[in-house]
Amino acid sequence: MQKTKSHRFCQSCLKTISIRSYGDCEGGGDKGIKAKLAKKIPVEREKFLGIKCLHGTKTIAKISVNSVIGGMRGLPLLFCETSSLDKNKGIFYRGMLLKDVCAKLPRVREGSQEGTPEGVFFLLTTGEMPKKEEAEEVTKEWVKRGNVPRYCLRMIDSMDKRVHPMAQLCAACACLNAQSKFVEAYNKGAKRGVYWESIYEDSMNLCAMLPAVAAAIYNNVFKEGEGSREINKEQDWSGNYCHMLGLPDEDFIDLIRLYMILHADHESGNVSAHACHLVGSALSDPFLSFSASMCGLAGPLHGLANQEVLVWLTKLRKAIGDEPTDDELKKFIDDTLQSGQVVPGYGHAVLRDTDPRFVLQNEFAMKHCKDDAGVKLVTRLWKIIPDVLKKLNKVANPYPNVDAHSGVLLQHYCLKELNYYTVLFGVSRALGVLSQLIWSRALGAPIERPKSFSSSELCKYIKEADKKDKKKKC
Ligand SMILES: CC(=O)SCCNC(=O)CCNC(=O)[C@H](O)C(C)(C)COP(=O)(O)OP(=O)(O)OC[C@H]1O[C@@H](n2cnc3c(N)ncnc32)[C@H](O)[C@@H]1OP(=O)(O)O
Ligand SMILES: O=C([O-])CC(=O)C(=O)O
């Protein structure tokens, strides 16, 4: 492989490309994804190395002082194969608008109006929309791999109920690393070129086990430890999760399918995805990397905002009732802002319009429960809050994000416990961040380690820049 049509590689890249990358893709019943990955990875790896080798020193953006002290917002710094966010159109999974993903995913379950999250995992990892049998194959594989080891369940059972469900999820996922195939392979001296294979195995196992882990947390904290932990092979991933939560209503299962599809991936710069990538870049296994991701998702400016929205709506309804006037709503919003709080569920670091994930949830609500008081309120607020936020003259995006809607739908179907909501988000987010992790190892992404500096060092950079500007003007 001395050269391709467009690339001529240096010796070091050639050596990396030539490392064996086809794994043992037979057996295990999951030929679909793994075999596809084994074919795609060498091609993508060659492309990736070609970019690095031939264009690595080219500049694509300038770094401003604001970027350094402002959370790097807007800086094109990260790589992400699985999805890409357009500030107006929202998220694209593998180049496909989310709305189209929802429409095109195969309907696997009889009577279901939604595709399956298993299908989304296939799409995100392989880059191809699955055929019905391919999506079904992932479901079967996850049913097979879904039983949680006893030691992990014992640890969950030992948790004090006061430990937030998200903290429990982080702990449970971290302790699953005793199962890691990647750790085993690494300790046996596996070569970098094959890391992705065991990362893939761990990711499949973790996805498969998450419903039982998440349901055990729910049942322990809210249902005195009742509820099943058995995976039923007649159910899909979402069906099993809902049955274990004790909420087997078919419409609710469809809502959860949709929820899991919508929350799965949002490119790689958001806190949960970036945390997973960062920790994974040190070659921590997928269980630890995902646990770190969940620690990030648990923050109120990120995933926990869906809990915050419900807290806020509950206060609102208590203060001004279920059918307040527009003026009462505006005053309540103003009071929130006056007290120094943000309006949860509104605004976004990248999006500049209503989040399509909000719209898709609202469409589900209009089909299934348009008369629900919470749904009506959220739909009305969508028309009122943006104008109030615009008046602040500082909010970059005054429109609702994904978190503004999910809670009222969950309430409608009797999943009432607000501080559990981010766990649902986390189960879904696994699909995206673990797909990303497989690709990070497949492409040999290096350890992440940006340079940092103190404020006095930053001032030196600023002086240098000022000097250069003066010279230019002269
Ligand atoms: C799945 C997700 O993670 S989606 C996001 C979930 N989070 C929320 O819904 C929490 C509410 N929203 C927010 O706090 C913010 O909009 C964020 C964190 C999502 C984005 O933050 P940023 O990129 O800094 O937003 P932006 O550039 O618009 O911030 C500018 C100012 O507007 C304020 N602002 C932004 N959104 C809001 C809001 N919803 N309510 C009130 N003020 C807001 C910011 O606090 C900031 O104020 P400051 O200059 O006094 O510090
Ligand atoms: O993209 C972001 O920063 C936050 C978000 O909406 C997500 O992670 O789903």
Automatic annotation (TrEMBL):
Q: Which UniProt keywords apply?
A: Transferase
Checking PROSITE patterns in the record gives:
CITRATE_SYNTHASE
Localization per record: Mitochondrion matrix
Stored Pfam families: Citrate_synt
Parts of the chain that traverse the membrane: none
The entry sums up its family as follows: Belongs to the citrate synthase family.
The subunit structure is: Homodimer.
Q: What is this protein called?
A: Citrate synthase
What species was this sequence derived from?
Answer: Drosophila rhopaloa (Fruit fly)
